[in-house]
């Protein structure tokens, strides 16, 4: 066990030199002593199969130290620049508009010239950047916004990512430094940015179809944006099929089709998308189609009536005065994400048609509320007792949405 002073002496004032010692303050734990900026810095060192002092995990101490020195150098030499680099992004000027490669090259060149005039050498690696490597400063630029009729807002699904080889932020156009976890990448559209830039990127994710592997269990907004649809194809196709041949079926949505057949429909949509065959020839039992639609809503990672809006709907359901209750429900509906709102509106209009035909279906708004309440809405915290207490309000909300569909939407 050696002291900080002894570690400092052993390192001999050599920049970048390091050693690991047992901590005197916390026996049994290790400390990384590292020379940087003419001083010895001490960090508590952890190990859980990989080495780390912060968020990043490293296979070796050497990689940890190398990455740390890079970060320390950049933060020391350009802290002011880093704090301001999100204030003049190239991203906001490009967005989803069509962008020629030459235009993006000029924009980056201008940015580099401005950096040069400031006398900052930190971003010198940009000079090594080959313009031919600009597959796109913003890949989404190849998607013309004018081609889409459904301009739903969607936040990016950023996850920490390790980039191989030099990489540049697609928001601010600056170099992404470090050995590993240099930034974050959107798993839906592939946007690559600094972690700090991700906090200011607008909610304009345009999912790439190649990244969307299935239809079921996929975020609703992600699915409709990826396919450029107003609503999920499962909802449209199933409802069209049900209204074409099931409006006189007794117990519609209450009765279940064979589980294996419902799973077959699910796999067909996941495999074939809007080319899935759900016709009477493929599935004569209409209850299989209603079962597949209910399963789609149950499998949504974010329910049709979202986690965020759930408490407000439950509060609205508890209001005693009928008019005030409907007003509260209407206001809460407006808080839903646009794609969720549109899908819910379409579904409620469909269920309303079923209730108008209840002499055949025997399905009233109350009956459908029992079926769809827990299917369309659930709390984020799956506390069993609280969920049980909320079930009657879930049923009531759906019942009221169906019965008052014409005035609530």
Describe the protein in words.
This protein is of the alpha+beta class. The chain has three domains: 4-82, SH2 domain (SHC Adaptor Protein, 2-Layer Sandwich); 85-110 and 152-211, Wheat Germ Agglutinin (Isolectin 2), domain 1 (2-Layer Sandwich), CATH 3.30.60; 233-407, Phosphatidylinositol 3-kinase, Chain A. The chain contains 17 helices and seven strands. The strands form two sheets. The protein has a four-stranded antiparallel beta sheet with strand order 1-2-3-4. The longest helix has 20 residues, at 384-403. The N and C termini lie far apart (72 Å). Residues 93-109 and 111-149 have low confidence and may be disordered.
Give me a quick take on this structure.
By secondary structure, the chain is of the alpha+beta class.
Low-confidence stretches: 93-109, 111-149
What is the total number of structural domains? Answer: 3
**Could you give the order of the helices and strands?**
HEEEEHHHHEEEHHHHHHHHHHHH
Counting DSSP E segments of at least 2 residues, the number of strands comes to 7
Shape: elongated
Return the CATH architecture of the largest domain: Orthogonal Bundle
Beginning-to-end CA distance, first to last residue: 72 Å
Gyration radius over CA? 28 Å
Number of helices: 17
Domain SH2: 1-65
Pfam families: C1_1 (PF00130), RhoGAP (PF00620), SH2 (PF00017)
Keywords: GTPase activation, Membrane, Metal-binding, SH2 domain, Zinc, Zinc-finger
Protein name: Beta-chimaerin
Topology (SSEs and partners):
Layout: H1 4-11, E1 18-22, E2 30-36, E3 39-47, E4 51-52, H2 61-77, H3 79-84, H4 91-94, H5 101-117, E5 158-161, E6 183-186, E7 192-193, H6 195-198, H7 220-227, H8 233-245, H9 259-272, H10 286-299, H11 310-317, H12 322-333, H13 338-356, H14 358-361, H15 365-376, H16 384-403, H17 405-408
Antiparallel strand pairs: 1-2, 2-3, 3-4, 5-6, 6-7
Helix pairs in contact: 8-10, 9-10, 10-15, 11-12, 11-16, 13-16, 15-16
InterPro entries: C1-like_sf, DAG/PE-bd, PKC_DAG/PE, Rho-type_GAP, Rho_GTPase_activation_prot, RhoGAP_chimaerin, RhoGAP_dom, SH2
Domain Rho-GAP: 218-409
Protein name: Beta-chimaerin
């Amino acid at each position: 066990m050696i002291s900080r002073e002894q570690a400092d002496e052993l390192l001999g004032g050599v920049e970048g030199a390091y050693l690991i010692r047992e901590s005197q303050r916390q026996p049994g734990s290790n400390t990384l002593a590292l020379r940087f900026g003419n001083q010895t810095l001490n960090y508590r060192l952890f190990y859980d199969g990989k080495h780390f002092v912060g968020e990043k995990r490293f296979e070796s101490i050497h990689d940890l130290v190398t990455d740390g020195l890079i970060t320390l150098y950049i933060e020391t030499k350009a802290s002011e620049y880093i704090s301001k680099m999100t204030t003049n992004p190239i991203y906001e000027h490009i967005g989803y508009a069509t962008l020629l490669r030459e235009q993006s090259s000029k924009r980056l060149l201008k940015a580099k010239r401005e950096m040069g005039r400031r006398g900052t050498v930190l971003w010198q690696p940009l000079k090594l950047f080959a313009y031919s490597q600009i597959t796109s400063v913003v890949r989404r630029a190849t998607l013309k916004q004018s081609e889409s009729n459904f301009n739903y807002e969607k936040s990016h699904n950023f996850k920490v990512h390790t980039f191989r080889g030099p990489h540049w932020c697609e928001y601010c156009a600056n170099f992404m430094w470090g050995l590993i976890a240099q930034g974050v990448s959107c798993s839906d559209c592939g946007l690559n940015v600094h972690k700090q830039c991700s906090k200011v990127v607008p909610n304009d994710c345009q999912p790439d179809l190649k990244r969307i592997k299935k239809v079921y269990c996929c975020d609703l907004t992600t699915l409709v944006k990826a396919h450029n649809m107003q609503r999920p194809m499962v909802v449209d196709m199933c409802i069209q099929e049900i209204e074409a041949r099931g409006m006189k079926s007794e117990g519609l949505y209450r009765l279940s089709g064979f589980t294996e057949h419902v799973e077959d429909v699910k796999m067909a949509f996941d495999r074939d998308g809007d080319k899935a065959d759900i016709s009477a020839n493929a599935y004569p039992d209409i209850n299989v189609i209603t079962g597949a639609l209910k399963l789609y809503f149950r499998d949504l990672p974010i329910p049709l009536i979202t986690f965020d809006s759930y408490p407000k709907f439950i509060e609205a359901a508890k209001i005693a005065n009928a008019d005030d209750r409907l007003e509260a429900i209407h206001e809460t509906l407006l808080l839903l994400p646009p794609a969720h709102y549109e899908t819910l509106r379409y579904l409620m209009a469909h269920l309303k048609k079923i209730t108008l035909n209840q002499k055949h279906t025997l399905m009233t708004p109350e009956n459908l509320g029992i079926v769809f309440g827990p299917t369309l809405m659930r709390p984020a915290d799956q506390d069993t007792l609280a969920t049980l207490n909320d079930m009657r309000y879930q049923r009531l909300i759906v019942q009221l949405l169906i019965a008052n569909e014409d005035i609530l939407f």
